[in-house]
Amino acid sequence: MKTNKYSFTFVIMLEKILLPQVQQFIKAHEKEDPFSLSLKYKEVAGLPIKVVAEQIAARQKAKNKLPEWHHTEGIIFPPLISMEQCSSEASAKYKSTLISGRTLIDLTGGAGVDTYYLAKNFTEVHYIEQNHDLAQIIGHNLRMLNVDNLEIHECTAEAFLERLKGNVDNFYIDPARRDNQQQKVFRLEDCTPDVLQLLPQLLEKGRQTLIKTSPMLDLPLAINDLKKVKEVHVVSVDGECKEVLYLIDHEGDPSPKIITINLKKNGTSEIFAFKMIEEADAQVSYSQPKIFLYEPNASILKAGGFKVISGKYRVDKLHQHTHLYTSSDYVDNFPGRSFKIIDIIPYNKKAVARLVPEKKANITTRNFPDDVAVIRKKLNLKDGGNKYLFAYTDVDNQKKIAVTEKT
Ligand SMILES: C[S@@+](CC[C@H](N)C(=O)[O-])C[C@H]1O[C@@H](n2cnc3c(N)ncnc32)[C@H](O)[C@@H]1O
């Protein structure tokens, strides 16, 4: 692994973080509030408490997001902004199932999480990062994690691509989604580097490129802008949509395959795939709620597979714009949440009080004029309990409440 341009003071600081006294302090205070610690102590073994407190805050974030790194001795956690921007272990592992080959160029290395998991499927890996200090930390961490097929390049993606001679198997790019004021952005042209600017070079020099984007970015718009999209992967972790990945190559596909995946805590996953054209052509049947109610997972909702899901699982849709589904026979492999309907009632306090005397319920809205806070107030309901209320517009355009319980 090659690195260069070491800053002396920075290296001293990194070495101090790894001192046994500092590591012991970090582990002993791992569950404490980093801010309170920074008020209570001045330094630990000559290292300013601010640096130590930042390590503790980052470790707390890593506990669920990056369990393998959290368990590994000698890891130096990068600044919190990089910890926030990096992929989780679960989503990085998923990405590593999508690409493999001889050479991988990760053009926006960041915290190195994606680099680390993707590196397992490549002979030769290049980590590119414009932030000098970050590249130093990640170089150290990847050594701690026994990565031996990696070269670190402290430069911009643009400069690296400009210098790159010949062709490579795969580029990976996960642009920074913050502007100069550190505000969140998601449009491709607002992120850095700008993938759309780099696109001609990526297509010319790479066999294929995997691009990670925010779920906020409109899928059809991105497919149109990226031109040669072959596959789209919409990734959720425990029901929350975290990222959308676009795989591009020289040919692309006029109707890319959309793969939706929900990675669950228990290690299982829900996968549902369809083609854009199938969704456009799909016929859907609508009905009033029957015995069971289904809510597709966040990846399917993000991907817009509203009609194909109805045909594939033989469930009826409640309304063209209400993305809830129903059936008489239970569909046990539906990718999302499933409920048994207790009753369907009008949207008023009296009707709800009769069915929810405990005055406590979990509320979801779909195609409904009031938001959850307003509904809670109007229906006098607290959050929680075993009942799940869906406020929706039905096939006859009536505002209704489905009172349900989990199957
Ligand atoms: C979202 S983070 C990448 C996170 C990474 N995939 C991970 O899982 O740890 C984006 C990174 O790109 C870097 N970056 C932004 N513009 C860049 C550019 N033009 N060239 C190289 N790196 C850049 C940022 O410094 C930041 O560390």
TrEMBL record:
Name the keywords, alphabetized.
Methyltransferase, Transferase
Transcription regulation found in the keyword field: no
Give every PG-1098 ferredoxin-like domain span. Answer: 292-335
Tell me the InterPro entries matching this sequence. Answer: PG_1098_Fer (IPR054168), RNA_cap_Gua-N2-MeTrfase (IPR019012), SAM-dependent_MTases_sf (IPR029063), Thump-like (IPR041497)
Q: Name one GO biological process term.
A: 7-methylguanosine cap hypermethylation
Identify the domain of life. Answer: Bacteria
Give an example GO molecular function: methyltransferase activity
SUPFAM superfamilies for this protein? S-adenosyl-L-methionine-dependent methyltransferases (SSF53335)
Give all residue intervals belonging to the THUMP-like domain: 336-403
Which CDD domains does the annotation name?
A: AdoMet_MTases
Its name, as the record gives it, is SAM-dependent methyltransferase
Organism field? Fulvivirga imtechensis AK7
